[in-house]
Amino acid sequence: MKKILIIEDEITIAELQRDYLEVNGFSVDIQQQGDIGLKKALEESYDLIILDLMLPMMDGFEICRQIRKVKDIPILMISAKKEDVDKIRGLGLGADDYITKPFSPSELVARVKAHLSRYDRLSTNKNNGEKEEIKIRGLSIDKTSRRVFVNEREITLTTKEFDLLTLLASNPNRVYTKDELFDKVWGMESLGDIATVTVHIRRVREKIELDPSNPKYIHTIWGVGYRFEL
Ligand code: CA
After folding, report:
1. How far is 153 from 135, CA to CA, in rounded Å?
2. What distance in Å separates the CA atoms of residue 179 and residue 225, rounded to the nearest whole number?
3. Domains of the chain
4. What is the pLDDT of residues 129-156, one digit of tens each?
5. What are phi and psi of 145, to 5 degrees?
6. What is the distance between the alpha carbons of residues 86 and 90, in angstroms, rounded to a whole number?
7. I need a labelling partner for 99 at 20 to 30 A (CA). Which of 18, 81, 115, 178 fits?
């Protein structure tokens, strides 16, 4: 049975969501306080999180950011204001979906099911060891064997250089801040600092770019971060 965590301070809304989800065969926990909700989300193994934005002790933005550092399970964000949707998108928090209040419980259930099956599909592909290959112009990355080729010629990358390049190339055209890249690639190891990102970007460019000072793949977005050009 799939386990869902609802982090929502308005108990009537949370219970309504829970009732509909339980009828549809899900097991559901409710947490009303932001910080405790985050703790539960990190400690227990949920298949999906339904996350309200405005919460006591810690808001949904921060909770989403913290969960994303360690888990890639679907996160559905619930907001009371339409303008929050732009904010969720703009922050690049990694939320999978957002719904504005008021919404029908059956719509929520439909979205939960859609995200769970998409997530299952993705993780099955990973587990089957299916060849996951990224090919962008002359660059090809084989995620399974962790090999990288530029115009058919194999190049050697360190673990972190490979992770950094693969993250950027897997999400082309998305702008990553240095902080995000540091969090995602170096994560909890916290050796070094943001400058590490700059150094690694430079090394990756030296290896994959024809002219590293005029990069074709990894572009610098001044004052923001980096983007992989499709
Ligand atoms: Ca709320």
Report:
1. 14
2. 9
3. 3-124 (3.40.50.2300), 129-228 (1.10.10.10)
4. 445 888 888 899 998 888 999 988 999 9
5. -95, 0
6. 6
7. 178
How much distance in Å is there from the Cα of 8 to the middle of ligand 1? 6
- Write out the H or E segment, with its range, that includes residue 212: none
Nearest to 36 by CA among 66, 15, 16: 66
**Token digits for 221?**
């977005």
Long-range contacts of 165-170 (CB under 8 A, 24+ apart): 165/141, 165/204, 165/208, 165/218, 166/134, 166/141, 168/218, 168/226, 168/227, 168/228, 169/134, 169/136, 169/139, 169/141, 169/217, 169/228, 170/134
Backbone angles phi, psi at 183, to 5 degrees: -60, -45
**One-letter identity of residue 207:** K
For ligand 1, the distance from its centroid to the CA atom of residue 229, given in whole angstroms, is 38
State in Å: Cα 119 to ligand 1 middle: 26
Residue 16 Cα, ligand 1 centroid: separation in angstroms? 14
Q: What percent of the chain has pLDDT over 90?
A: 59
